[in-house]
Amino acid sequence: MISYERFELKNGLRVLVHEDQSTPMAAVNLLYNVGARDESPEKTGFAHLFEHLMFGGSLNISDFDEQIQLAGGDSNAFTNNDMTNFYTTLPAANLETAFWLESDRMLQLKLTPKALETQRRVVIEEFKETCLNQPYGDVWHHLSDLAFRIHPYRWPAIGLIPQHVEEATLDDVREFFDTYYCPNNAILSIAGPVKSADIRRLAEKWFGDIPAGAIPLRQLPQEPPQQQLQQRIQRANVPVDALYLAFHTPARDHTDYYAVDLLSDILCNGNSSRLYRRLLKEQQLVNAIDAYITGNIDPGLLIIEAKTREGISLETAEAAIWKELERLQNQAISKRELAKYINKVESTLIFSETNVLNKAMNLAFFELLDDVDLINTEAEAYARVTTADIQRVAQQILTRENCSELYYLAGSGDGF
Fold first, then answer.
1. Do 188 and 245 lie in a common domain?
2. CA distance 34 to 249
């Protein structure tokens, strides 16, 4: 059981504290409720750009990382479609350093032509390296475009095209920062050998005077149900042919989320999972196969991806996959098979609780979902899933009309 205290400053900053006296290290996590889904279709990649800009210095701090390192810590960040998350671990004795640094860049980030140009180059180079020059690097651009028509999940967090960041003006990024990087759009979570009273004092001292922002009401278009199979063939200079099947899934707060997550594990999580055992070990149709969910806050995707062995066509591999999916739809799995995957999930959740950074991150994320207690009750939610639930969600989700299919063929092609 992870105990926590929650409070909110007058400016809207939500703060969560977990006291853990078993370690000398503390974790400071600052989550901003802004991701790629909050971008304009004509200006994508901004949330990811700010992940980099936030390390470019603020009014009183020229180098964020240097100050963290001098305090004996390290820091990093990540961006996805739903949020932007900054995290630091450092000795608890130097905890106030992290409060000083995070508050300074929240209040007065250094947004200058030089800072923008420096980080713009970094982000564009990352786009080229990971999406344009890496085999299968543009897969998410194709899958997102196939699966989503109106929801902003139709572009990945790195952006739709590099030109959007390349053409971003200083006014563009200032407007984005002023809109989303404010205390009432952020969640601060602390885990480590701390006292809640001390964290409250530090939060008031460093964040209390930062004014709240005028956050726009998020009104995202709801993706309509997919009515027919979406297909695309992509040729590129890749080592082997690859197949991707994407199925629409419920939102993160939907009661079926846990059944769908377990369904993806049953399909392909470990050497005894169905797709791995039948397609890779027994039939030797593929040399790699996986299944996973995106876990988005809004309705997301369950992905099956496979790379075929030499001489095996994608059509042959796909037919074998569909045979396994139909088996799940038509025949309930055994209680023993389901219990194995529930136990795996439970052990993963328990293991994650041993790390103060994981606890700080999870507290912030579940607060974003408006249900912090999930940090202690998710294992129970998985345990409540039945074999009938697995069969039902398989019947609802793993259908051809709900599928977006991408064939990635090795050979000459322009790529993305």
1. no
2. 22
Is 309 part of a structural domain of the chain?
Answer: yes
Closest alpha carbon to 397 in 274, 193, 294, 259: 259
Considering the entire predicted model, what is its pTM?
A: 0.95
Angle in degrees, 0-180, between the axes of helices 257-268 and 314-330, rounded to the nearest 10: 130
Average pLDDT of the chain? 96
- For residue 9, CA distances in Å to 30, 177, 182, 277, 360 come to 15, 21, 12, 53, 18
pLDDT of residue 415: 46
- Asked whether residue 238 falls in the same domain as residue 129, the answer is no
Torsion from C-alpha of 268, 270, 276, 281, nearest 10 degrees: 180
Residue with tokens 């055994």: 334
154-193 per-position pLDDT tens digit? 999 999 999 999 999 999 999 999 999 999 999 999 999 9
Q: Domain of 131?
A: 5-207
CATH of the domain at 380: 3.30.830.10
Distances (CA, A) of 30 to 20, 130, 357: 18, 26, 11
Domain count, the chain: 2
